[in-house]
Structures are given as structure tokens and as C-alpha cells.
Design a protein that fits this description.
Layout lengths: L4 H6 L4 H8 L6 H22 L18 E3 L3 E6 L5 E5 L2 E4 L2 E4 L2 E5 L5 E5 L11 E10 L5 E11 L6 E11 L13 E3 L1 E6 L6 E8 L4 E8 L4 E4 L5 E8 L4 E7 L8 E6 L4 E7 L5 E5 L5 E5 L4 E6 L2 E9 L3 E5 L5 E6 L6 E7 L4 E4 L5 E2 L1 E4 L5 E5 L6 E5 L2
Antiparallel strand pairs: 1-31, 2-3, 3-6, 4-5, 6-7, 8-9, 9-10, 10-11, 12-13, 13-14, 14-15, 16-17, 17-18, 18-19, 20-21, 21-22, 22-23, 24-25, 25-26, 26-27, 26-28, 29-30, 30-31
Amino acid sequence: MTLTLIEILFSPAPEFLEEAWSRLKNFKLGRMRRFFSGLACCALFAWLATAASPPHAAPQGQPLPNPLQSINEECTAFAFAPDGRIVFSVRRVFPKHKVLMQRDDIWIASAASKKRRIVDGEKLITGPDDFSYTVRALRWSPDGTRLTAELETRTMVNEQGETREGVAALLLDDGGREIKISGGDSIIPNAENAAWLDDGATVVYLLEAIKPRLLFTINTVRPVAGRGGPLVANAFYSAAAWDAQRHMGVAIERDERLAYAPKVVLLDLIKQVRRVLVEIEGFAGGLTISPSGEKMAYFRDGEILEIREISKPEKATRVRVPFGNYQWSRDERRILIKRGPERRSDSLVWVRLADSDFAPILHELTFRDFMISPDGRRVGVMIPGKGNIVVYPLE
């Protein structure tokens, strides 16, 4: 099906235009207009040359399953709560002091699609006036009463529009009230992968130790007490995954010089102790814990996923699958994977772990992001360009 010129011009912007726009958030308005006018012309001609069919129309005669829920907003991140609610962030751009700022709003939608805004980004005071942020990840506490929002931050450093970029974790309850750390505010500077544990009092997170994002330390903080610090002194990690409900985690431990083979370690996040499980030959990313907490997985390289039982870590099951973002099925027999880099659109594929059998879903349409609900019965997908979220039943 060929698009007409009018249909192309008025259809949603493709992802590269969205990315270009996101890089202009803190430009002064005059500079922005001049820059964007040239960029838009180049991008438009490229788009016209490649646009040939609607990106999210199902093949003729093969209708998509009826969606269970839709959120028609320009979303930047989302997450399912244990009770079925969805928290999502919506892009919010506004002018301030002749500068375009971005401070995303945060909303919660019920399973009946009733939604309410819990954070007004323009009114959220988390830094200086020229502080902007994009929400890039949202995580619920195990009991569904608290949230962490991972922010990608930008702060203006001079009048020429240069910015300093960073990350931070914002602590909230599900009513949008900031949870302040005793003696501070609700922000943990430089924190990544922050999550509430099931005790309702402890937050665990990563801090960059060796740039650029080569090694991290694992840290905890108890906001009410205001106490926190490294989980294990003088220990460094390439990645970590949390089982917040069981107060445990697994991590890839490395020496400071990356001279020795990586080790998989088991972490007790409350007692703050570690135990070496096994030394591994390679680690390329994608560390996860299965829903039962009994298995872990990671990419050994760009095409081999290794799966190990935590109680028997010396034995590995290897599955040939292209590198990508993946999540476990509830029965832990399959993974649902979006191949390629994070936030790059691609189709979703079930991979059966017993024999590496592939089974595409949703007619192999491409999506920017996805998430399986905690009960394993639904999958939420983010539409490229638009940022809309659609929830489908998961077979």
C-alpha cells in the first residue's frame, strides 16, 4: 500500500525525527529555529524517500488481536504494577526564560483505562531553573505502593546553550508524593537501576565507578533513616539484576582493571553480603532473574544466551538467539525478545529455551519498547514515533 504525499506529511513522525527533537530541548529558541529548519528539510526528504507503507497496519486478512487497553499519549516509559495498573511518563516540553525545557509528567492508568496525573513535570522542583529531564524507566515496588523514576537529566551550563548530562533516581509513592531522604530531597543523584525492596524501606541502585559506564558499585539507602552506602566495600560490577520481592540480586563482578574473568555473585540486599556462584567465560549484557527467582540469564556474546540455575550455577544451558532486550514467560520455558539495541524498534519474537524455536507475535510489527505484565497474561508495546502504549493479550 503506497502513501500519498498528504498522508506522509500528516502521519506521525518517525523515530529519527523524534530523536532529533529530543536533542534540542535546551537550545535557545532563536538558535533552535535556525538549526531545526535545516534539519527538518533533510529529514523530511529522507522520510519521503523511504515511506512506502503504514508502519503499524497488520497484513491484509490478518487482523491484530483486539487491544485490551490503549494510552494515546507521547509516552517515554511505562511499567505494569502487580495489580494491573500502568504507570507511564508523557513528554512535556515548555518554554522558560527563552529556553525550551523538558520535564515529563507521570500518570497512572487503571485496567479500566481511567487515568490520573500524579506528577506535573513543570511544577516538580528537583534542581535549578534550567534543569530538564526525560523519564527513561519506571519501576514499581513489590507491593505496588511506591515508584522509582529513572531520569535522564540535562542542565544548562552557560549562555551558549551547552548542557551537562547525567542520570538520577526520583522516589515517589503511587499518589505522586515525593519520598524524601532524611537530610536531603527525593532525588538520588547519578543513580541507575534504582528499585524498592519488599521491606518498603530500602532502595537499591547502581553508581558509576569507572567511566564510561564500565563498572558500577551497588548501593542502598533507607530514606526514613537517611543511611546508605555501598553494599559491599571495594567491589565493582558490570551489571546487576534485582529480585526485590525476595531481597536478593545477582551481579557480574569484575576486578577494577578488568584483568580477570567475570564472576556471577549472589547478593543478599538486606544483610548486605555476597556469595560467588560461578566464574564465567564472557558477559555481553542482558542480565536478568527469572520470575521464580530460581534462574538467571545473560548474553555470553552477541548471539548466545546462557541460563543457569542459581542453586546449580556450574551448569549452563546455552540458547542461540540474537542480542536484544528480553523478558521471561511466566512458566520460564520461553523468553520474549525484541532484537537489537534498546529503544531501537524491532519485532517481538518468542524463543523456546528447550530448542531455540522462534515464533513471532503481533504479525511481526515493530515496536520501540515492550513489557510483560507480572501475571504473564498481557504485553504492553510502545508504538514507534507516536509513543502510544497498546496492551494486547499474550498467548
